[in-house]
Amino acid sequence: MTWGDSRGLARAEKRSGGVSQQRRFIGSVLDGGIRMTNFTRRLVVVAFALVLIVAAAAASPFYLPPESNAPRWVGGFPYQRNIEWTFATNPAGGPAPGGAPGAHYEGSLDSALWSSDFVQLLGDAAWYDTVAGTTLRGFVGIDNRGGNSDLQGTAVFHVDNTSSGGEKNLWLELDWIWGGDSSASLQLLTSPGTEVQWFGFVSLIPGQELWRGNLYGLISPNPVWEEISLAFVAPAGSYLLIDRLQVATECVPEPATLALLGCALAGVGLSAARRRR
C-alpha cells in the first residue's frame, strides 16, 4: 500500500483487488438541548465540563473509530490493544517494562503486553522535533528538502497480542504531511502462515495541512504479534513525515464460530419462549 505520488494524489489500495478508494473526511456537529431551571442548568453545565476535562485527560479516541467504520469490528473503546504515538519524543527503543517510548496506552490488554512492544527507525528514517514550513511538532519519516540524493528508510512498530480467537481485527489511523515525489509503503508483518485482507481510505483534513489515512486489516489465523512497517522513499527536495499513528486490535472468533454462537442464543430464546407459553 503506497501513499503519495508526483501528481499530488494520496491513495489507499486494497491489496486483494488493487482497487483504489478515496473518501472525503466529513465532520458533523449535533445540536440538542433539554429544558430545565437556570439553577439546575448551571449545575449540569459545571458537571458536564468536569466530565469533559476528565475524559480529555484519560481518552484518546480515534477520529474515525473502528466500531463505526471497519466492516467487521466487534468491540468498542478502549479496545484490547490501543496505542497512540504523537511523536512528541523519539519513539525508537524498547522492549522496555513501561512499553515503547512515547506511546500512549489505553487498551484493556496493554498493561499485560506493552513490555514486548518496540519501535525501530532504520536507514534514513528519523525522528524530528520540528521541521521547516509547519507549526506542527513531532514527526517520524524523512525530510530531504535540503539533500541532493535519494533517501530511504523504514519505521517499524512492533505490537504483541494474545492468540485467543480465530481471527484478528486491526484498525490503523495515521496523519502525515508530504511534498515533492516522496512516497511511503505500508506493510503489516505477522508470523508465517497468516493472511491479511486490507480495506482503507485516505482524506485531506479540512482546514489543515495534514492528510489522514484509515486502514482496516482482517488477519487470519490470529497471530500473537504484528509489525506495522512504513517504508519511506524521499528523492532530493521532497519529504514525507508521519505526525500521528494510532493502532487498535481485537481478537475475534471465526465467522463459523459466530454463526454457531448465534444459533445457540436463538435456541435459548426459543426454549424460553416455549416455557412462558
Helix and strand content put the structural class at alpha+beta
Order of helices and strands: EEEHHEEHEEEEEEEEEEH
Share of β-strand residues:
35-45%
Distance between the termini: 57 Å
According to DSSP, the number of beta strands is: 15
Q: Largest sheet, described in full?
A: 8 strands, antiparallel
| Low-pLDDT sequence parts | 4-58, 256-276
Average pLDDT level:
76
* Integer count of domains: 1
Overall geometry comes to globular
Helix content: 10-25%
Count of runs of 4 or more consecutive helical residues: 4
Radius of gyration: 22 Å
Output the keywords.
277 residues, 15 strands, 38% strand
Please tell me about this protein's structure:
The strands form three sheets. Strands 4, 5, 7, 8, 10, 12, 13 and 15 form an eight-stranded antiparallel sheet that branches. The chain has a five-stranded antiparallel sheet with strand order 1-11-14-9-6, with no helix packed on it. 18% of the residues lie in helices and 38% in strands. A hairpin with a 6-residue loop joins β12 and β13. The longest helix has 22 residues, at 255-276. The protein contains four helices and 15 strands. By secondary structure, it is an alpha+beta fold. The protein has helices at 38-58, 66-69, 110-113, 255-276, and strands at 2-3, 12-14, 19-21, 81-85, 103-105, 118-123, 126-128, 139-143, 151-160, 167-179, 183-190, 195-204, 211-220, 225-234, 239-252. It has one domain (2-27, 66-276). The protein is globular and about 50 Å long. The termini are far apart.
